[in-house]
Specification:
The relative contact order is 0.13. The protein has helices spanning about 1-20, 25-35, 40-50, 55-65, 85-100, 105-115, 125-130, 145-150, 160-165, 185-195, 210-215, and strands at about 40, 70-75, 75-80, 120, 135-140, 155, 175-180, 200-205. It is about 50% helix and about 15% strand. The strands form two sheets. It has a five-stranded parallel sheet, with helices on both faces. Keywords: DNA-binding, Transcription, Transcription regulation. InterPro entries: ArsR-like_HTH, HTH_ArsR_DNA-bd_dom, Metal_resp_trans_reg, Rhodanese-like_dom, Rhodanese-like_dom_sf, Thiosulphate_STrfase_CS, WH-like_DNA-bd_sf, WH_DNA-bd_sf.
C-alpha cells in the first residue's frame, strides 16, 4: 500500500513538474509574454521573438503539451493564444518571484531597460490627467497587438514609427506611454525619444498585461492613430 501511495505521489509531483519544465526556457517565456497581448500566428510570433518558424513551432508545441496555450487553424495558418488568464497570472508571479529572489534579475533588467525609467504615472494619475485634458495616452506596441486589445482612448503609434509620426501627438500635453508589461522596453524607448524631442512624457506603471489581469476595460480594433 505504501509503495502504491509513493508511486502515486511521485506521479503527481512529476505532473506538476511538467509545467515547470515547459516554463524552463527564456524564449518560451517570451512567447507567453507576447501571447498575453492577444492571439498570434506562428509566423508573427517567430518574427517578433527573433526565431525561425521551425524553432518557434517547437517551443509552442511544448507549451501546448503542457496545457499553457491553445490553438485554432485558419486555412493553412495556425494561431496560438494563452489557455487562460491563469497562465498570464502565473507568468507575472514568476517574474515577481525572480525579481525578489534571483540576484541576476536586477542587473539584467537594468541592462535591458536602462538605469533610469524616468517619471511614471499610476492608473489613477493617468485617468485624472486624461479627464482634465492635460495628457494623451499612447500605445507604442506593434499595430497588430493594439488591434487585438488596447486601453480605451489610447492612440496607436508603434515605437519604430514614433520618430516620424511625433507630429500626430497634440502639443502642450503630457504623453503617457504604455506597452506590453512591466518588463517591456518599448515604453522606455518611447519616453526617452519623446524627451529628446522636447515632449513631456511619462511611462504608465501598468502595461497591457497588468491592465488585463486587473479586469479593466479593453477595446479592440484599429482605433485612433493605428
Amino acid at each position: 500500500m505504501a509503495e502504491t501511495e509513493d508511486g502515486a505521489k511521485a506521479a503527481l509531483y512529476e505532473a506538476f513538474a511538467a509545467t515547470g519544465k515547459a516554463l524552463g526556457s527564456g524564449k518560451r517565456l517570451e512567447l507567453l509574454d507576447l501571447l498575453a497581448q492577444g492571439e498570434r500566428s506562428v509566423e508573427g510570433l517567430a518574427r517578433t521573438a527573433g526565431l525561425n518558424v521551425t524553432t518557434a513551432s517547437a517551443h509552442l508545441q511544448t507549451l501546448k503539451q503542457a496545457g499553457l496555450v491553445a490553438t485554432r487553424r485558419e486555412g493553412v495558418k495556425v494561431f496560438y493564444r494563452l489557455a487562460g488568464d491563469d497562465v498570464a497570472r502565473l507568468c507575472v508571479l514568476l517574474q515577481q518571484v525572480a525579481q525578489d529572489r534571483q540576484p541576476a534579475v536586477e542587473p539584467a533588467r537594468v541592462a535591458f531597460l536602462g538605469p533610469d525609467g524616468g517619471r511614471e504615472f499610476s492608473v489613477p494619475q493617468m485617468r485624472a490627467s486624461l479627464q482634465a485634458g492635460t495628457a494623451v495616452l499612447l500605445d507604442v506596441r506593434p499595430a497588430e497587438e493594439y488591434r487585438a486589445g488596447h486601453i480605451p482612448g489610447a492612440l496607436s503609434i508603434p515605437v519604430g514609427e514614433l520618430a516620424d509620426r511625433i507630429g500626430e501627438l497634440p502639443e502642450g500635453v503630457e504623453v503617457v506611454v504604455y506597452c506590453r508589461g512591466e518588463y517591456c522596453a518599448l515604453a522606455y524607448d518611447a519616453v526617452r525619444l519623446l524627451a529628446r524631442r522636447g515632449r513631456r512624457a511619462v511611462r504608465l506603471t501598468d502595461g497591457m498585461l497588468e491592465w488585463r489581469l486587473a479586469g479593466l476595460p479593453v477595446s479592440a480594433g484599429a482605433g485612433e492613430g493605428a
